[in-house]
Amino acid sequence: MKWRTGAREDPKPCREKDQGKFEITARDGQARLGKLHTKHGIVQTPCLLPVINPNIRTIEPREMWDKYGIQALITNSYVIWKHEKLKSVALSDGVHSLLDYPGMIMTDSGTFQSYVYGDVEVGVEEIVQFQKDIGVDVATMLDVFTRPDMTYSQVKEAVNETVKRSTPSISTAQEMMLNGPIQGGIFPELRAMSAKKMSELNFSVHPIGGIVPVMEQQKYTNLAKIMLATKSNLSPNRPVHMFGCGHPMLFPMLIALGADLFDSAAYVLFARDGRLLTPWGTEKISEMEEWPIIMPSVSNHTPAEVRKMNKEDRTILLSRFNLEVTLQELSRCRQAVRDGTIWRLAERRSHQHPALREAFLWLTTNPSKAILEPLILDEISASKETGEEKGRWEENWDWLVSAQQTPRNGGESWGGNDTFNRPHIQMAMRNLHSRWQSQKRGDVIVFHGTTPPWRDKIGELVDRISNLDYELFIQTPIGIVPYGLEDLNPWAHVEGPSWMWNGALDHIKIQSDLEKFGLVNRRVIPIDISDTEDLHNRVFEILGIGPTERDIEANKTRQIIDKMCVLYNMNYRDAADIMADSTYVMSRTGRIRNVINSNGAHIVSPRLAEGGLSLTVEGAKMLHSLRKIPVPKSFGTKKKSDCSGNGLAWVVVDSDAEPFVKQGRNVMHGFVLACDEWTRPDETVLIVNQSGELLAIGRSQSTPEELSTFKKGIAIKVREGCP
Ligand code: GUN
């Protein structure tokens, strides 16, 4: 979005049938770029809805539209309802005219006022009807605010009361888009309960409520836990709004956890007492000689000059500064989602503030093992009060990890120990450990001590020993990887200090990795390859054998089989059978370019940049014919079963979509009838009709839950139709 001088054109309304729909246009794990379709424009997310106090308009809404391109804002319908002058203009001319703003307007309902002042005088249906009467785009029901100091039973009652108020609110709203806030205080299981119940009702957006005091107290670990408990239980096809969250420092982490909309009065409130928002925290202008970031609004002034201004002018200027910084950080986050680096941005930002670091460390040191305790252990803890069994964070963590993709371009940028806990690395490890299948009964050889590309250093040696009864691994900073996957990202491409590769063998980590591969009680033979001088003879000596012949074919075949297992979820025997009859077209540098089957058909090609595989139509037909389980009839269950070895996931499409998909057109949401439960974003899938006939090869953009709930946007990108 460009900032500019002069007027900007008014937005075009969305298509009538799209009103209220949300679509994803790009993703990075659970972070997403989206479009929310409204009568006052199609709003690009993640975005900030600046709070406008209709009585004090520090920055005019029109300026927000014209200059900053802000596509949506939020104001308070209860404040308008209470002030006779505002109310009568809003009722006669509409809220867009009252605020002089052409974009999407969301309104809040008075819940926050009832939290601050104790009560509000307006009724549940009355406030929704009022929002409808003044023509807002997205209204909010009167939910019950849950404070962090409330007991478990008080919070449970508030969650249930909010659910109870939903039905009359939805009937009053009719076609108007409505916010269904998620409450639950600091109790993860109540957040989950609220998310599940509210998902079942006909809301357009789900704000996460009751988080203002959590943020004010800088309890960011609690915020991360609330987010994880809520998002993993919410219907994914609705945007999630963070009520009262506008500090740019929090954006990367929250976006990485799936936040779509933010609102905040912080840009004005902080400006009033001379505080500047930055992506790394808050700074006071009173102690400042130079700007922390030079934004357009302050480029002609020094902090000292601004301090001398009268309060009103200073507030306006600093509000602009705060808004500009906030918008800039959101742009940075959106670009990071496009680049596949949002987690890395959150990781980097986490070092800026101790409370944020604590939150991030909680997230990344595997919360799956932690118990779902209330987020602060007060003296009357929830478990004592309810006697309920506490669950674990396992499912919530799984929600985060299983939507991850390995970035295709660029390597893994080392960032200390955090690197190895990145969710996409965890996902890559899961696929590796559950899908790769050992074929040797003998010892394990672990090559260590040097950087990739390993084939240049030990390719010939492996040609000479791959027929022996040893399973061959390479130690990488991420963990050991079978030699057959030596060029596969993320293992093959970690940018970091050389000592990560040269360091001593980590026996404990190796044993734990081997267990995950299902290799127990195997002797480990470490082979240092930092010096390749006389390596072959050294290895023959270690293994107690004489010189062996090179078998290039066996080595190359195993590489393709290993990749078919890990990337296509194939069972080893099927992959080996295909490869037994296949030949290769080689590149000049001695790498496989194409794999040709016994009928002379090109079936698959290794992708040299990141070690992946590209499937051809003929290859897809072969893999399709190997399926041993029925055509999927549903979208699977949330409880994951072991699906390894079942082959590429199948996605079943509607007969209306069939001819288009066969011609190579993308599968749109709404046309998917079922899919295998191991369908994952960015993985290759086979698109079939209800009888299981192959229609196309695609790359899923979605999880099974998303395929079952979204109604707009691309579900599967089709690579090639299968005529
Ligand atoms: N603004 C800040 N927090 C909340 C909340 O929990 N509910 C509503 N309706 N508005 C809010």
Write the layout of secondary structure elements.
Layout: E1 22-28, E2 31-38, E3 41-45, E4 47-52, H1 61-66, E5 72-76, H2 77-82, H3 84-93, H4 95-99, E6 104-108, H5 111-117, H6 124-133, E7 138-140, H7 152-173, E8 177-179, H8 188-199, E9 206-208, H9 212-216, H10 220-231, E10 240-242, H11 251-256, E11 261-264, H12 266-272, E12 275-278, E13 281-284, H13 303-308, H14 311-339, H15 342-350, H16 354-364, H17 382-386, H18 394-401, E14 412-413, H19 423-435, E15 444-448, H20 454-465, E16 471-476, E17 479-482, E18 494-495, H21 499-502, H22 507-516, E19 524-528, H23 535-543, H24 552-568, H25 572-580, E20 583-586, E21 592-596, E22 602-606, E23 613-615, H26 617-625, E24 649-653, H27 658-662, E25 667-668, E26 672-675, E27 684-688, E28 694-700, H28 704-709, E29 714-721
Parallel strand pairs: 4-5, 4-11, 5-6, 7-8, 9-10, 10-11, 14-18, 15-16, 15-19, 24-27
Antiparallel strand pairs: 1-2, 2-3, 12-13, 16-17, 20-21, 21-22, 22-23, 24-26, 25-29, 27-28, 28-29
Helix pairs in contact: 6-7, 7-8, 8-10, 10-16, 12-14, 15-16, 20-24, 24-25
Indicate the CATH topology of the largest domain. TIM Barrel
Main sheet: which strands, in order across? 6-5-4-11-10-9
Main pleated sheet: 6 strands, parallel
CATH class of the largest domain: Alpha Beta
Mean pLDDT: 93
Count of helical regions? 28
Q: Could you tell me the strand content as a percent range?
A: 15-25%
**Attached small molecules:** guanine
Domain tally: 4
Distance between the termini: 41 Å
How many β-strand stretches?
A: 29
| Global Rg | 28 Å
At CATH level 2, the architecture of the largest domain is Alpha-Beta Barrel
Structural class given helices, strands, pairing? alpha/beta
Overall 3D shape: globular
> CATH H level of the largest domain: which superfamily?
Queuine tRNA-ribosyltransferase-like
Indicate the percent of residues in helices. Answer: 25-40%
In the predicted model, the low-confidence regions spanning at least 5 consecutive residues are 377-384
